[in-house]
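Bug #77: duplicate submission created two jobs. Keeping one. Sequence:
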Amino acid sequence: MPKHIGIVACSAEGAALCYRTICTGGAASMGAHAHPEISMHTPSLADYMACIYRNDWPGVAELMLASAGKLAKAGADFLICPDNTIHQALPHVLPRSPLPWLHIAEVVAAEAAARGYKRIGIAGTRWLVDSEVYPEKLSARGLEFLRPTDAERDDTNRIIMDELVMGIFRPEAVAAYQRLFGRMKDAGCDAVVLGCTEIPLIMNDGNSPLPTLDSTRLLARAALRRAA
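Kept job's structure:
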């Protein structure tokens, strides 16, 4: 029997994309219409943001642990979190978690190394790109990285929080990411991490100046492999 996947969700659009990817991707290895059992728990995004705005990562961890406990009771075998930003709280979570986790940045870094990339641009919320979530995992595999400038962080953070997590997708947002990824390409990057799980809803290899590492779908596919 495939393992039961538990999804610790934060923002709706990224979690929904991850969930859909698992459901639709299961058929490739399990047969038509098949996928592993999946449970998802989602507290209010406002509860997460209240902690994030005051830089309270132990508080974020408590929300994640509450979800983890409910998913364990639902029968999940392991956990994933389709939200890059709150992975900053994972060091507070893991010692007390009732279940093992897949780490989104480890999954992405492994894919970057497998594809032979050397210098990776990091895109995501301001909190994510300010953090060591991706630099730590990329550096562990000998990969270089580049963060956005302060102005780029402000612009893309506004797009994520005011538009993408609300299901608002505008051509102007695509253009902003194209400018950012183009600048990263000029700075020597050979790929870019879509390090907010909503960015893949507007950016992909077809409209990006750089090859993309889609954190949402990569995590979903890694969960499928583990479940199988």
